[in-house]
Amino acid sequence: MLIEHVSSSVDPDEHEAKCLAECEDSKQVYYCSVCEYNYCDLCWDTCLPHKKNLKHKDGRYHEKVNLELTATYDEVFNKVYEGEELDELHIMDRSAKWFGIKQRTNKLGEEKVFLITQQRLEQILDPIAEGSDGPIYPSIVTFLGETGAGKSTLIKALIKASHIGQRVLQAIAEVPVSGSINNSDVPSSGDVHVYGDPRSRHSEIPILFADCEGIEGGNRDPVAEIAWRGVYKKFKDGATELLSDRLTHICTPVIQQYHDNPPAERKITQRSGTVQWTRSLFVSQIYPRFLFPFSDTIVFIVKNAKTIETVVEKLITWAEFAVEHSSNQPTLPSALIVLNKVDTRTDEKDWDPDERTKKFFRRLEPELLVKNKKFQQWTDKWMKERNHKVETVEELIKLYYSDVRVIAIPDAKQTDRLHKQLLSLYGEISSLSIDAKERKTNARMALEYKELLSYLNCAFDHFTEKPDEPFNFIDCAFRKNPIPDDFSGRILSFLIEFMRHLQRTNQREVYGHTCNMIASAILLDSTRNNKIGSPDLIYRYYLTHIKKAIEAYRDLWHPCEYITPTRRKIRCVNVRTYHIKGHQSESGKLIGKGEFQSSIAVGQDEEELGRIYDLIYSSYMELSASCSSELDPTSKNEAQVAGERHRVHVLRHFFRRFSTFFSPTLCLVCIGQRSKYPLECGHAICERCLKCFGSSENGVFYSLRDCPICSTVGYKPPPNEPCVFSVSLNEVAPCVLSLDGGGVRGIIQIEALSEIQKAIGLGVPVIEFFDLVVGTSCGGVLALGLGDKRTDIEELSNNFEKFCRNAFRERIGSNIAGFNKVVRHIHHNSRFETKGLERELKSQLGERPLFGFRSHAANGGRTLATAVVAARMDTTCIVFGSYNPPLEPNPSSSMKYDFFRPERAEGEIRSWEAARATSAAPSYFKPFRHPATELQLQDGAICYNNPAAIAGIEWKKLIPGPNPDTQPDLFLSLGTGISVVKEKVSLRDKKLGWIPFKGVKQAAGIAYDIVEQKLDTARAWEDFLGYQIANPTMERYKRLTVQLDDIRPDLANCAAIPGLRSAAQKHFKREPEIKKIANQLIASLFYYKLDSTWAFDGDESKGFSCKGGVQVAL
């Protein structure tokens, strides 16, 4: 039944009241932002201004706006939060922080600055990646502007508007905290927070909104930081009664998560004499160095801009601090200028982004380059320092940004217009993200999610270690995405390392000097792999690999050959594909604008490279003919003859000219394999070259009289005694040793190995029976002592307690009540001094590179690979090894770790440094900083306290055995003791006892249990057997540990060592598995050597006979 509607002559207040009370049959209610009343759809036209479509005096029309839309924007733009309600929002928003700074004063009154990072991107993107059918390529969109410009509010509006009609999602959506009107001149959230865009969540390009602390916000602490410190102090002091029950309830899980997963801290190195970092400087100069190279779009928010040139000034000033702090950047970000809170009386056409952008640039007259002092400084700089004349302001902006767009956002009074402009803003952001993805794809650097994380962590490490030096994307690419381990990849590695050795950038010269080496590499590889066919056919097969290597070198690795015309000849370092910024020096300084330059001109490179291929072909054919003429079928095989021809006619010529050329990974003798055996001279050769240039009586141990390079050139005398190395045997399965972490409890592992050695009884060190040993934390230190140093097990046992007491030296003042927290706060929350630990490690392991010459390995000892597990500050796993494994992806998608091999010799990690990294347990020792590679490392137990899973992957790379299903002869995992369950539970309850609410305590208990699972070595072993091994032969997989009568001692409780030693000795003397393990190790020395096979009566269907014999690998 229709209700009689109110007349339009009624007072509006009374009209609205009657409408909402009486119009029960209306389907929809709307809001008029001019009248500021709600009307049903039937009553709307009864209001005179609506009926006649009249304008308000401020130019606004009476728009019919969705009521929920109005409520949403009213909450976003108009609702004011103050006091404890604002504190609640800031505390909950803390989990959205990505990175920021922390200032700390040490006991000498010195101000130290730390970069604080949280796993915010993983928190957002992990669920997206897991639910995606393919790779995802996140797009970072950074919102930038002065404090109070409205950055956080606009991000909040974009996210909330995406959930219109979905109230539950809108209520739980993670959004920024807008600034308070009472603190409009103080940064609100501070640092850099990140929020996921709901609209693009399930797309190939999920967008991330990065909310950067406002520039020109001064050095005052942000409101959020003040709120956090106040609440955190009350929790720490046990004074939660001073907080409301609601705030306590909200804060408890946030603080518990902060304790369980503390942010990673990286101390920022500052050169002496430079200006001390303040919050203001950090926000304006350091944040851009992270955000500029990794953002697809910079959304620059401006409110009440006095002149359009002021906007351009701020936009370029921000970029200027960043543009010279990265090189080989794949693409420049786009700039999206948002004019916020624009008067609603603006012409209709100016709301269109295309028209607004045109108008923006029309107002930027060329004369401004002279009239504006800042613009003039920049144009002079580009002319004098970069040899490029700037003619328009638009051209000046686009020297820093790949594109510039402008959009206007009205104030919140006109809801319908606001909504349309926000949709348009999102459309611009989405379009720019898609364009950036296309540009990065063309530049071969579209970073998939996990790759992006790796590059970002590289940048965090780099800018904290060397904040004034540019971050080179190419160097990071080399570390994160190693060159493929095939023939073309090794040729590419050779070209790169040779170019770096030359320290010159003439492309034609690089190819000219390496043609013969590449040709000879083809001959060596083809003869060693028994490639059948004419030399011409063989060359055609390899030509594909050569072209792939040389074209990759040309496009991705060879730097531009531009040199400044000034007296100081400065070279460009940007490569052909990443020459987006123009010419840039090694220090990051822009030195010119122009195209990539090379001695082989772009457009003529195909013709020139064809000539290079012809030279390689001619050299190969000549070497092949020479090899065939000298081949004596009765005495030497073709591979040996090819080796001799290579040594005499190619190596000699090349290394007489480039005698100081070394490689940390590549065998420079053949350049076709990765090096395996480091020599005393500093070179390293592969196994094939050892067999080619060495001699053997049993096929296991090869004697090498001298280095094939040094002996050819003659600049180093041969050693007095030949080196004797053992080689891998295809018929043999390995023996693997895995050592858990556990601090002083490592004495249990030592006693277990000691008892096994006694059970073997051959007078041979037990470690000589293993092919690979992998350790974490204290297990890593023991692995290096046993495997790398070959310290006798009895010596380790005798010196272990002394080592621990010297290593675990508490900091001065750390045991004084009330002062200990201050001491730990100053030193990364670490209890113990690092000097004592480092002194002991250097004393025990020496200063030698982990991958380097070892006399025991060169004197007939077993070739034993040693690896230790560490973690980066973002808790991703990294493995350091004394070997050079094939660069193969991990076979298990669940196993995520990097194997460290430096791209340059100076980046090698020393043995003691690897031990220091793997033992840097949080809260015990400071993280370890490796200066050569900028890596900041901590205890590997964070990732794998039991490294069995890593050992299970690494042995397959090194010694895969005779077939794909090969199981190791023995896989021995040694633990550091099992505690009584009830004691563990009581310890858990003790740690969680301070939490006041039962429900929150239960949630915190779950989080605590998750952390404990990472350290649960027994569970890790079960998982390894269950998920990593396909059909394991259980007798080959053994785990030994000790059941302790009491709770396991603390990692640093040196007083517990005698008791642990006694318990271990008592247990292992009675352990029946010890004798079985000893017998398995002895049996592993024997293998069947197959000489020949033949079919019965020449018919394979009847079966085969084989001939061979049992051999001993000694």
TrEMBL record:
Domain B box-type: 14-67
Motif position, GXSXG: 775-779
Limits of the RING-type domain: 667-711
Annotated signal peptide: none
Sample GO molecular function, one term: calcium-independent phospholipase A2 activity
Location of the PNPLA domain: 737-952
Keyword Zinc: yes
Pfam families: Patatin
Position of sequence motif DGA/G: 939-941
One of the record's GO cellular component terms: membrane
Protein name per the record: FabD/lysophospholipase-like protein
Species per Swiss-Prot/TrEMBL record: Ascobolus immersus RN42
